[in-house]
Amino acid sequence: MSDDGQHSGPQRAVRGLVFVEEHMFRLVDIAAPAQGRTPSPDTRADSLVTFGRDPGLATFTSALEDGKQHVTLELWPAEPPPPEGDWVAGLAERVTVGGGQLRLASGISSLGSPHELDVSPGTYVLGVWCRGRDAAWTAFLTWLDDEEEDEEQGDGEASVQRAFDGVEQWLLRLWPAG
To answer: Is 61 exposed, middle or buried (0-12, 13-18, 19+ CB in 10 A)?
Structure first.
């Protein structure tokens, strides 16, 4: 805690690339008992997240149908300050964590990522920010054009490196509710 009473940063954080399927990835509590199906996301362009309940705490809507997005999940001891930089949204909602073992996973097949964060069971606020959606879409279209050119020229092999992976960035902050 800093001298002015504000917390200087998150207690714990995980970050990295997460698979996106059909525009979706999820935050799930893999230790929570199943309580029904997580709602499908609202796929309107202005809707970034649909909040659910254990085990599917939230479903996030990516600008891209498939790929990998860079996600940072942070646990804060109290409500954090807004993130610095050009982040969009700042949506926040109360979520109940029943099991306390949070994982980022793909949207449809729930392919888990190595990004797990253990928290105490309880009620939290989940804040969500995003940036790079337009840049990711532009990078995808450029990559697609390059792939089509390679096919027309008979190069035969699709490139392994996809320039649009990781361009869209998500910041998820979790802190105890009230």
So the answer is: buried
